[in-house]
Amino acid sequence: MINKNGSNIQRILAILLFFSISHVFGQRDLKINIDDFNNDKVIDTLKTFYEGGSGFGGRYVQIVNGKTNEMYELTNDGCFCDIKSTILIPPKLAKKENARFLEIMITRLLPKKRNNPDASLDWMIKSAYANVSLKNNPFFNLIIDPQIEWIQGEFKAPENYYMEIEGDSLMQLYSTPYEAPEWLDAKNAKGFLIYYANKHYRNREGDSIRLSDSNATYKVYNTSHGVYVQKENTYKW
Question: Residue 12 pLDDT more than 60?
């Protein structure tokens, strides 16, 4: 059992350790939480902050295991222009004994979770597998045929969310402006696909969705980054 004084000392040491292994320059919205996050009766330290510039940036979540002094990190850092991105889970963080750490980090970093993509993201995912590059064509350099089905019912605008992905699916969609980490194992890779659906809209009032064209059968709408078509009581992206 740790007495009150011992507990306070441990908290102080944890904070000092954390700052010694973390860079502070450029960090904003800094928050530090100290608690026994994995229920092993040793105090751990959780740190979240935002770091970035005019075109790139993101939130960082770091946690230090109080017992081993190991630090784990996840970040959604990337280009503000991205409508989707991937996050790799470091192998050590993916271990069963660190499941509680990962769970807490997810709540600090990611939007809500979905098990399956909505229609707009499904189009993007399938297009990564169903495209043909063209050569010597004066008008087009790529044909995408993702075989999207018509959806019954009223149009539903997508919201931000993430999905868990791994293996070949993750590697097919994985992209980064930085060098891939040395520990990346393509066959056993695990991570998250984040969909920034808010990039479809310039504001919450919905005027980013506009009627582009129509005839007796179809109505074609565009968002800031997408197009969908309505036909009677169905639609597709």
Answer: no
